[in-house]
Request: fold
Amino acid sequence: DDGVTGLGVEVGFHTGKADDKKHRKAAQGKEDAVFCGGVGAAAAYELSHYPLHTAIFEAENDVADCTTKANSAILHAGYDPEPGTRMARLNVEGSALAKEICARLDVPYLQCGSLVLALSPEELPHLQKLYENGIANGVPGIRLLSAEETLAMEPNLAPTVVGALYAPSAAIVSPWDFALAMAEVAVRNGVELHRSCPVTRIEKTAGGWALTTPSGIVETRYIINAAGISAQAVHDMAAPHKFTIQPTRGEYYLLDKSEGSRVHHVIFQCPNENGKGVLVAPTVHGNLIVGPNADPVEGDDTACTAAGLAFVSAAARRSVPNIRFSESIRNFAGVRANVDTGDFVIGEAEGAPGFIDLAGMKSPGLSSAPAVAREAVKILEAHGDLPAPKADYRDGRTRVRFKELPPEEKARLIAKEPAYGRVICRCETITEGEILDALHEEIPATTIDGVKRRCGAGMGRCQGGFCGPRVLELISKTLGIRPLDVLQDKAGTNVLLCETKQEGEHHD
Reply:
C-alpha cells in the first residue's frame, strides 16, 4: 500500500456468561494506544458470527482513524510476498474474501488490476521473479506484458517502459469504509465498542487476562492484539519481547477528479528494500492517488514534509510523466507497522496462553485482513472455545449514495425524507439526509471527519471549505452538543475556540 494499512484493535471476548465480565477500579499504568482498523475490524466481524461476549477497545474516538484512513487503498493481488510465507497465503485468500465482503456490505470496490513496470531492461528479471512468486502463490490471471501491450493498456505511461507484470485480480477500495462496515455489522450483532478507551495495562489472571482501561478493569479469557504500530507495546505488556515494530511514514498526494482518469490500473514500479515504491492509482471516489515514500518515524507521526513530497512527485513521474500535481487537493501521510520478522506475526504469544498476536500488518495487511481474522478464529477453535455459529446472524449493509441513484429513486427518497433534497457538500453532491444517516449508524459519527469517512462530505476539491460549517451545525444539533465541542477529528481538534457576540447582543 506501500501497505500503509494501519490496523489494530484489541478484542477481548468472554466465553462465559455476561455476568462473568467484572469491572474494578482502574490501576495506574503507562498509556498505550490501541486502534480499531482493518485487521481489528475484520477480527470483530468474524467473532461476531459466534455467541461470544466480545469487546473492542479503541484508543481514538472513532474506528479506522489511524493508518486505515491514510493508505493507498489497494487490495493487492499477491505476487510480491515470498512463497511459503504467511503474507503470501493470506494476501491471496484475503483479497478474495475482501471482494465478497465489500459486495455484501456495500463498500466501494473496483477490481481494476495492477501493473508493475520495468522502466529499464535491467528490471525485467525482477518482473520475472514477481511472476514466479505470483504463480507459486496462486495469483489468478497473472501474466507478463511487452512494452507495446503495456502502453496499449496505459498510454500515459513513460515511453521508457520495457515491460510489465499484469495482475487482473488487484483492486481498489474505500479502506475506512471497509473497516467501518465490518465493525458496524459486528456491533449490530452484539460486539461492544468502547471508543476513547486505550488499554494501559495487561495482567495475567487465574481465568485469563485483566485489561486496565480509563473506565475500569475488564476481565477476559482471550485477547487478540491487532494494534497496528502499537502491537509491539501491547504484546510486551503481556509476554516477553518477541518482535520490534518500526513505524514508517508514507506521504501522499491526492489529486482532483480532473486527474482521476490519468491511469486506469494501479501502477507500481519495481519494489525495493523500502517496499513497493511510489505508485500511481485511481481511487474508488474518482480521484488519483500518488505515493508513498518510506520514512522511519517515532510513533504516529503523520506530518507531511517538503522533502518527502518532492521525492514522491519526482518518483511518480518516472512512471507517469504528465501527472499534473497542480491539481492536488490534499497531502496526507499514514504510518505503517514495519516489523523486523519479515512476515506477519500471528499466533499465541509464547508463555502467554490466550494472548493472540495479529501484528506486523504492513503491506499487504489491508488485503489480508479478512484472512488474518480467520487465523484468530482457528486458534480459538483449536482451544475448543468456539461454539457453533449464530443461527440468527444479521449480516449485510446498504448505504444511500444519493448522487448515484436514478431520478425516480431520488424523488421517492425526497418525498419520504426532505433532507435528501438538500445538498450540503457541493463538490461531492452529498445531501443532508446522508449526513444525518452518518450520525445515526450502528457506529455513529461524532466528528466532522467521522462524517466525511461515512458519507464523503468534505472529500471534494474544496476539502470541506464550503460544507464544513454546515456539517458542524448538523453534528451539534443532532448529537446535542455545543458547537464549541464539535471536533474536526481526534481529541483536541476543536474547530471553534471561542464564542463572540455582536455589539449590543447579550449572551448568557
